[in-house]
Each structure stands twice: as C-alpha cells, then as structure tokens.
Amino acid sequence: MSIVALARDAGDGPGAPMPRTGDDPGTALVDAVEVRLTKVDALADPRDAACAMLAVADDVLVDWAAFRGDAPTQATREGFRLLALHRQGAQDLPSFNACRETCREIVYHFNLLRPADPGDALPAEDAARTRVMMGLLVRHLALFVGGKMRSARVGEFCCASRPIRQDD
Question: Which of 49, 52, 64, 72 lies closest to 99 in space, CA to CA?
C-alpha cells in the first residue's frame, strides 16, 4: 500500500500528488516535505508562508493517518486541523504523543505570523526568525513521522531516532 500523496504548494493546489522516492514511505515523506518547504521559502509574505507551512504539517499527519489505514479527520481542535490530526494519530499509540509539543509549537508560530489583529504583526526581523523556526518545526514533525513509518519504536523515549539507528 502506498502512502497518501501530499503536494499542496503555490502552483499545485490541494491534493496534488507528492513526488515519491524509493519504496520507503518514511523517506518519501521527508523528501516530499523538503521539496514543499523549498517552495515555501520563495514566498515573500510571511503570512502566506505560515499558511503554506501549516498545510505541509497537516499533510504530514494526513499521510500518517493513511499509512495506518485510517481516514484522516476533518475535525479541528482549538481551531486547527493539525491538532485534531495529532489527536487522531495518538489515539491508540501513546508513543505518537512525542510529537504533540511539536504540533503545538507549529500552531504557536503560525499564530505569531498570522495574528488576528494586523496591528499585532511582528517586526520584519522577528517575523523572519519565526518563519525559520516554523520551518524547522515542520521538518522535525516530518522526520518524526517518517521515522515512525520505519519503526514503531520511535517515540518510546521522546522523539529520538535511536530505534532507527539500531536497525541500520
């Protein structure tokens, strides 16, 4: 069974297929996220970049649900699908909670870059730093989920990749 493709970027629109590399779905997921985040880097407006990075993070967890044979939820939690998808992914898998704070940090950085009141927008320098951090958090989520696709033991002790390194 193949993983659900995820390529939503500036030119492709929702649900466009994500490029795959090799037969390992975890590696394919991480590679696809890198491709998408590279395209996000080209966006000038930090608000647009925040939306694009949140969509990538959502899609990572959509792929996780599909990998497990679940239908991804359309629900939201605290106003974000990402948090509902995380909750769904961790329902019967306590070790998946290792990425809970990563998901919450992505939401936090999204809110910093897209404040409800435009008067609360970050200064350009702070927005640039926040944008970089949000990108790192999305990569971290993809690396965790990609690792989890390779080894169910990932997340048993924080989000360390030790089970993968031991298998290699």
Answer: 64
